[in-house]
Amino acid sequence: MAEQLSFDLPVRAALGREDFFVTSANAGPVAMIEDVAHWPGGKLAISGPEASGKTHLAHVWADRTDGVVISASDLARFDIPTLASAVNVAVEDVPHISGRRREENALFHLHNLLLSEGGRLLLTGREAPTRWAIDLADLRSRLAGTTLVTLDPPDDALLAALLKKQFHDRQIRAGDGLVDYLLPRMTRSGAAARRLVALIDRLSLNERRSISVPLARRALEMSQNRDEDGAEDHP
After folding, report:
1. Which of 28, 103, 137, 172 has the greatest number of C-beta atoms within 10 Å?
2. 17 and 64 in contact (C-beta within 8 Å)?
3. 75 and 103 in contact (C-beta within 8 Å)?
4. 223: confidence class by pLDDT, cuts 50, 70, 90
5. Could you give the CA distance from residue 108 to residue 8 in angstroms, rounded to a whole number?
6. Using one digit for the tens of pLDDT, what is the confidence trace for 18-39?
7. Which residues pair with 214 in a beta bridge?
8. How far apart are CA 123 and CA 44, in angstroms?
9. Whether the Cβ atoms of residue 193 and residue 164 lie closer than 8 Å to each other
10. Are 183 and 177 spatial neighbours (Cβ–Cβ below 8 Å)?
11. Are the beta carbons of 104 and 136 closer than 8 angstroms?
12. Domain residue spans in the chain?
């Protein structure tokens, strides 16, 4: 029998407000996103680990405010006055431009233009702005003064919702029994949920097996082995 090959096809993530599950772990940041009129100084920073929901919240906010979401790494490609005319701008992964003079200068000018005209600026990064290694001193001081909200590690309800969302994004029907099996056994993070569901999907495709608890058990074992030796799994 010929081996069936699986391909890493792009996964279209659902980023609407109805797709964002709110629990005590993220209620604070959600409340701030929905109360944009009261942001101190017109700006807000969201911090949290990989796959904690920063991008999703940025898109929820942009949808609510008719704003735009861009990557900090792309800033130098934009005409900053034109970008500032959007009034509400979310800039993702600000730490990625550390030491990149053009991008840092672009963010500095965007910050000043937006806030001088009464706009709103949303920033994201894995750590607090005070820990972003920005070389441009004037920009660094402005970022350090930004109000911060932090996405906490997921509780049980949120982790279950993250698993279900990852399955849904991959158009996989996963019953509550499968999620209930994974929940107490997996690494407790949004990034782990994303990697685990991707691994389950690849195993299912490669082996032409339906998704089940036994297959999920194997994926968990492979994921744990990878975490221990730092290597990627390629089923």
Report:
1. 103
2. yes
3. yes
4. confident
5. 37
6. 567 788 778 888 899 989 999 9
7. none
8. 6
9. no
10. no
11. yes
12. 26-150, 156-229
Of all residues in the chain, the percent with pLDDT exceeding 70 is 88
Antiparallel, parallel or unpaired: β 88-92 and 147-150: unpaired
Just give the CATH number of 156-229: 1.10.8
Span 26-150 CATH architecture = 3-Layer(aba) Sandwich (3.40)
Distances in Å between the Cα of 20 and the Cα atoms of 26, 29, 114, 206 are 10, 12, 27, 31
Residues paired with 69 in a beta bridge: 90
Confirm if 102 and 68 have CB atoms less than 8 A apart. Answer: no
| Rounded (10°) CA dihedral 104, 109, 112, 118 | -120
| Token reading at 185 | 């056994």
- Name residue 54's amino acid: K
Q: What is the pLDDT of residue 26?
A: 84
Tokens of 26: 């993220």
Phi-psi region of 53 (alpha: psi -120 to 50; beta: other; left: phi over 0): left
Amino acid letter, 103: E
Sort 17 into a burial class: Cβ within 10 Å, 0-12 / 13-18 / 19+: middle
Cα(70)–Cα(135) distance, rounded to whole angstroms? 21
What is the token pair recorded at 168?
């849904």
Nearest of 124, 113, 138 to residue 90 by alpha carbon: 124
Beta-carbon neighbour count of residue 96 at 10 Å?
14
